[in-house]
Amino acid sequence: MTQWNRPDQPPHHPHRRKKSSKGKILGFGCLGLIAVIAVIVVITVVAMGGEESGGPAPDETSATPTERSPEPTAEDTAKSYGDGDYTVGRDIPAGTYESAGAKEDIVEGCLITTEPKGDKLPQTKTADRNERVVITLSAADGTLTVQGCEPLRRR
Description:
Region (Disordered): 1-22, 50-93
Transmembrane segments: 25-48
Keywords: Membrane, Transmembrane, Transmembrane helix
Helix content: 10-25%
CATH architecture of the largest domain: Sandwich
CATH topology of the largest domain: Jelly Rolls
Radius of gyration: 30 Å
């Protein structure tokens, strides 16, 4: 008799594997990790206020580089702008600003840059500790980025 016709043994299937719970656990673990990453991305977008969603653009015709900025009010000179990104004309008014230089930190360096709209060239200002920085902004300067600096105040 051949081994295939033996009634006391189950048929032999050489390509079948025993089912393991490791695959299910790994699959659920990957699915959980993807869900956690998705939640973090959603929270980050909400916390940033959806700036990348293409909200209303600031009015580019409100000030031209040849126009003189209005005189700052007491409220304007009292307000300061620390590290971060600001849209000129929306988050920070056009005008001339001053910083006392780099903050006291492990790496003492102040960097102020603009990302202009259109054909205007970007501005880059750097300073060390106690080195004054002055920058004049117009609506065409687009986005202002401040890193490692004492807060900017309007002059």
